Amino acid sequence: MDIEGAREFIRQHHWGVLVTRRANGGVQTSPVVASVDGEGSVTISTRETARKVHNLRRDPRASYCGFTDRFYGEWLQVDGTAEVVSLPAALEPLVDYYRSIRGEHEDWDRYRAAMAEERRVLVRLTIERVGPQRSG
Fold first, then answer.
1. Alpha helices of 33-124 — where are they, by DSSP H?
2. Cα–Cα distance between 119 and 103 in angstroms, integer?
3. What are the tens digits of pLDDT across the range 94-123?
4. Residue 87: C-alpha distances to residues 50, 71, 109, 114 (Å)
5. How many domains does the chain have?
6. Which of 27, 42, 71, 99 lies at a C-alpha separation of 20 to 30 Å from 12?
7. How many CB atoms lie within 10 A of CB 26?
8. Residues 6+ apart with CB under 8 A from 130
9. CATH code at 54?
10. Average pLDDT over residues 21-43
11. Helix axes 91-102, 108-117, angle to 10 degrees
């Protein structure tokens, strides 16, 4: 599978696990909901205070393993470099993130207020490598 194929898979299947690196070199995994933005980066919403955010700010290398709703279904891994976009710059990209997964929100003002209250950030993972993956 190539990078565009991986993007299409993630656009259709949002469940996954983000892998970041701890200060001691070990890995830290987090179940996440992911999408792909207009620039082709994998996007993930999380809190400013989350351990994965601290890890990525120290070492931006990350991997994402995405899978279908079926545990034994298709899956893929992508590796790349992540950036953390904080508020206020993250606010409209968080709106785009939500839309790409759930469609329109019933109250965008309330959504934006919740993102600010929860101190949400957007993780953007630039895909540099795809694989392994399992198809079918």
1. 51-58, 91-102, 108-117
2. 22
3. 999 999 999 999 999 999 999 999 999 999
4. 15, 34, 15, 12
5. 1
6. 27
7. 7
8. 1, 2, 3, 5, 6, 76, 77, 78
9. 2.30.110.10
10. 98
11. 120
Q: How confident is the model at residue 91 (pLDDT cuts 50, 70, 90)?
A: very high
Percent residues over pLDDT 70 in the chain:
99
Structural domain boundaries, residue 110: 3-134
Which residue type is seen at 89? A
Structure-block tokens of residue 118: 């929860």
Residue type, 71: F
Instruction: Report yes or no: 118 and 99 within 8 Å, Cβ to Cβ.
Output: no
pLDDT for 135 equals: 74
Task: Retrieve residue 3's tokens.
Answer: 């990078």
